[in-house]
Amino acid sequence: MLLTEADHSYRRIVSVGMFDGVHEGHRSLLRDLVTTASRLGLRPAAVTFRNHPRHLVKPGQRVAMLMSLEERVEKLHQCGVEDVILLDFDEKTRMMTAREFMDMLHSDYNVDYIVMGFNNRFGHDRPEGMEAYREIGVTLGINILSAAEYKCDTATAVSSSTVRKLLASCEVEKAARLLGHPYRLAGTVVHGKELGRTIGFPTANIAPSDPDSVIPGNGVYAVVVHLPDGTSRHGMLNIGHRPTVDTPYAPPSIEVNIFDYHADLYDKPVAIDFIAFMRHEQAFNSIDELTRQLEADRDEARRLCLNG
Questions:
Q1: Cα 215 → chain centroid
Q2: Structural contact between residues 63 and 55, judged by C-beta atoms closer than 8 angstroms
Q3: What is the 3-state composition of the chain as percent helix, strand, coil, each rounded to the nearest 5?
C-alpha cells in the first residue's frame, strides 16, 4: 500500500531512506525489517521521499536517479515491504529534528519500531550514533533496532552514489553486482536521423522517461531490450555523439540496435538492461570501417548477452 497521508490502520515497523536503486545494501536492511516485523507481529513499511533531499539542500544541483519513483515503490514491495510511506522533502521536513521526525512517524503512522542501518542518520540535528536515536525513541515509545551491516563480496562500498559513479565510468557490470540486477533505463522510442538503417544497422532512438535518470557513460554496450509486447531481445546500444556520421558538436544520443526485431516502435515505451560495456565511442575513417566494427560489436554483444 502506498501511503501519502496519515494512516492508523496498523502498528508498524519502518526503515527510513531514499532507497534509490534498492541495491543489495538496501535489500539486506529490508530483509532484517521484514524478518523482525514477522517476529513482532507488526506491519513492515519503508519511509521514503518523493524528491531527493539534495534538491532542497543544494538547489540547482542535479541528482541523477537510478530509478523512477514508480520503480522504487515497486521494488520496495517486491522486497516484502507492505507499506511505502511517501513523504515530500520540503522545508518543513528539512527543519525537523530527529525527535520531531520520529514523533511524526509515531503519531501519524503508528510506528513503534525503526530499523536503522549502521550508517543511517536522519533529522536536521543529525544525532551521532545509534544510542542517541535509542535515547530519543525511549521518550516517544519507539524502539530503535540496529540492522546487521551488509558485507559485500567486493571491496567497493555499496551505496547509491557508488552505483552512479560506476555507471558514469561505464562499469555497468560492477554496478549490476551492487544493485543485484542490471541497471535499467526506461524510455520512449523517438525519431532520429535514421542513418543506421542505411548501413544495415537500424536503431531506435531512446528518450529517457525520467529526465533525472542516470545515463551511463558514452560508449557501446551489450543490452537486453524489453519491448512493449512483453518480450525481450538482445541488442547493442550506443551512447554518444556518433563521430563518424555526425559533427563533433552534435547532441548526445541513445541508440539501440535490436537484434532480430523489425516492428515499428515509434512513440512506444521500452526498457533497456545494461549487460556489459564493450568499447568507447570512436571515429572511423570510412562507413565501411564503421560497418565492419558494428558487425564485430553485434557478435560480441550476442555472446555477452547469452553469457550474462
A1: 11
A2: yes
A3: 35, 25, 40
Residues contacting 305, CB < 8 A, separation 6+: 222, 223, 224, 234, 275
Going by C-alpha positions, the residue among 257, 233, 228 that lies closest to residue 306 is 233
The residue behind cell 512517524 is 105
Residue 251 has pLDDT above 80, yes or no: no
Determine whether 264 is exposed, middle or buried from the number of CB atoms within 10 Å of its CB (0-12, 13-18, 19+): exposed
C-alpha–C-alpha distance, residues 196 and 173, integer Å: 27
| Average pLDDT rounded to a whole number, residues 67-86 | 96
Q: Assess contact for 303 and 236: CB atoms under 8 A.
A: no
How far is it, in rounded angstroms, from Cα 28 to Cα 116? Answer: 11
In terms of DSSP bridges, do strands 204-208 and 183-190 run parallel, antiparallel, or are they unpaired?
antiparallel
Distance CA 119, CA 26 (A): 12
| Beta strands in the chain, from DSSP E residues, in sequence order | 2-3, 12-16, 43-49, 83-87, 111-116, 143-146, 183-190, 204-208, 219-226, 232-240, 253-258, 269-279
pLDDT at 155 over 80: no
Q: In 10 A of CB 296, how many CB atoms?
A: 12
Phi-psi label, residue 158: left if phi above 0, alpha if psi -120 to 50, beta otherwise: beta
